[in-house]
Amino acid sequence: MAKQTNYAQPWSQFYGPNLGYVIEMYEQYLDDPNSIDPELKQLFEQWGAPVLEEPVSPADDETAKTHQTFRLPETPTIFSKLVAAVKLADSIRHYGHLVADTNPLVKKEKKLRRLELDEYDLTEEDLKRIPVAFLCPHAPAHVKNGWDAILHLRKIYTDKIAFEFSQVHNLEERNWLIQQIESGAYYPSLANKERVALLRRLTEVEGFEKFIHRTYVGQKRFSIEGLDSMVPLLDELVRQAIEHEIDAVNIGMAHRGRLNVLAHVLGKPYEMIFAEFQHAESKNFIPSEGSVAITYGWTGDVKYHLGAARRLRNQSAHTMRITLANNPSHLEVVNPVVLGYTRAAQEDRTKPGVPVQNTDASFAILIFSAKFCRRR
């Protein structure tokens, strides 16, 4: 059967591990055409070797068209290298978290056999001959070849943040995660002003805990120490929520770090918190303009069980309510309560008939205690 001349199809529909599988099957086809599925055999006979379309920058070649077609040489050795490179990239995604540098107090060895070139009989030169789209289709523009792609994947998956999502079997969800992680969308560069603001925020968080520790020695509390970055993270979630004009943000969390979140995210005055440590009347310190409301429950409760609510207004006068639900000692009981709050806040009851749900109107944030999760 004569081979088609338009090599871009159907191979342009495959990338990453799927393309690696097709390449592996083609290599098997070259050795013994009858050893593979008849339909796949017919596909190879019709279209030839797997190929891939890659964008070409006009700056690199003024006469280039929008796309150029990269066709694999029909040599089993080349295919073996491609398959090995795809397996290496996939191993970095699956096992990179095992060597991620997530603990600043412990120097972790970065070497893991599954992530080494030797394990796959690859060299830097082999990888430089492989197009980026085979290994990391969502890579940033500075990633130019397969070697750059492997370095990029190693930096993403083995650096200060660990990603583990091999348990996600839904293909659409999995591909979305890969795209978001590997595109660098969540690694924005901060201006100096933003860096200073972040440092100031972390200093406030740590200073608050140290003051309580020194001043109220022996009093029961659940420090945020070790989770300090949770407050800037909540700050960013709140900022983006009001920027997108969401109506309500509902937070449910256990005890650890609650006082710090009350003070810095919900705006509960320091005076109120310190008065509670001194078993003094604290209600006099509630802001008079009504921007913050404190939840005491029916009979009152200990300070690290209390909740609060706060209203924020953006430049376009949109008002958003942030609520931290009060939480008793049964730590997980707050989760369905907060989800219920959120579901109710998503309903538009301004029109006659059945309320219309708007999932963009409100969202829930559930924060679990690391210590509690380990016991589970």
From TrEMBL:
The protein's required cofactors: thiamine diphosphate
Q: Which domain of life is it from?
A: Bacteria
Q: Name one GO molecular function term.
A: thiamine pyrophosphate binding
| Keyword vocabulary terms for this entry | Oxidoreductase, Thiamine pyrophosphate
Q: Which InterPro entries match?
A: 2-oxogl_dehyd_N (IPR032106), 2oxoglutarate_DH_E1 (IPR011603), DH_E1 (IPR001017), THDP-binding (IPR029061)
Q: What is its EC number?
A: 1.2.4.2
Pull one GO CC term from this UniProt entry: cytosol
Which residues constitute the signal peptide according to the record?
none
What GO biological process terms are annotated to this protein in UniProt?
A: tricarboxylic acid cycle
Q: Does the keyword Lyase apply?
A: no
Which parts of the sequence belong to the 2-oxoglutarate dehydrogenase E1 component N-terminal domain? Answer: 13-46
Pfam families in the record: 2-oxogl_dehyd_N, E1_dh
Q: In its keyword annotation, does this UniProt entry include Coiled coil? A: no
Q: Which residues form the Dehydrogenase E1 component domain?
A: 228-351
- Gene3D superfamilies assigned to the protein according to its UniProt record, in alphabetical order: 3.40.50.970, TPP helical domain (1.10.287.1150)
Question: What name goes with this protein?
Answer: oxoglutarate dehydrogenase (succinyl-transferring)
